[in-house]
Amino acid sequence: MTVAQARRILGRYEKIATRADRARDAALLAEVAGGNVLERSKAGYKQYDALSRRMRAPFSRPTRYRNPAFHIPAGSPWFLVTATRTAPSPQLTVLVFAKDRRTGQNRQPVARWRLRAALPLQAGRLPRIATTRAGLATEVSAASRSGTLRPADVPGTYEDLWQTGGTGKAAALAPNAVTKEARSTYRHRDDELGAEGARRRFVPVRPRHRDSYELRTADGGVLAVVPLAHEQRLHVTRPGLQLTPSDEEAVYDPAPRSTVVSTFHGQALAHLPRQGRAVVLSAKYGLVDSR
Questions:
Q1: Could you tell me how far CA 81 lies from the centroid of its own chain?
Q2: pLDDT (tens digit, 9 = 90+) per residue, 153-178?
Q3: Is the preceding omega at residue 204 within 30 degrees of 0, hence cis?
């Protein structure tokens, strides 16, 4: 993989993803995206008619990134890109492209690559990626400890914020805007449930797509992209009462019921410094099912 090839892969993704989003064409998007990215996008296409005008707007915007920097680990079937997404407002984003082994060898090389992660920077600063003399990045094992955690520990540690408000494993994470938002959601989880006498809890579940990506940073730490998944479980506490699903939940099951279980899949971007607590720089989820 060369920088020129990586640039062509990104350009192809931009063109096809723009067409796919505007037409809400999942089969077309699958030519350039896979894994969690494709799963969440397909869910968004399915929920489109139930979304507010503000939530629909991104589907009509072009997918464009400027000032891309390519971080290519030697011999690995994936690479990472840092770039600024242009719309709706400039935002630094981390992208991961990986080779799809299921595609035939007779296809053009750029056609065998899929976007597997796209995470906007939500807090802090991106650490600098370490490079070799040849300008290549260095892949790191998800099982390698850096500071207080391994990359493989980050999903369960972050999900603790949703499950307990951060009283357990999440103490290993440095506080910032990302952790604050998750803690706030936990604290106020029952505030809007009204007269139904309902309660809400979040339960970690196994992600459908479990791929993760790790690179060595210049400070000796690790920049990691990891999977996330949890269920939001709503249930009434008074006999005879029922819950009405939200518009998006109703896409999967519109029936009023005593329990609504909605599944959210996502990904997180985390920096694990060589010393000190890990920092979650971004965490994005999408509703992918509700029963």
A1: 15
A2: 999 999 999 999 999 999 999 999 99
A3: no
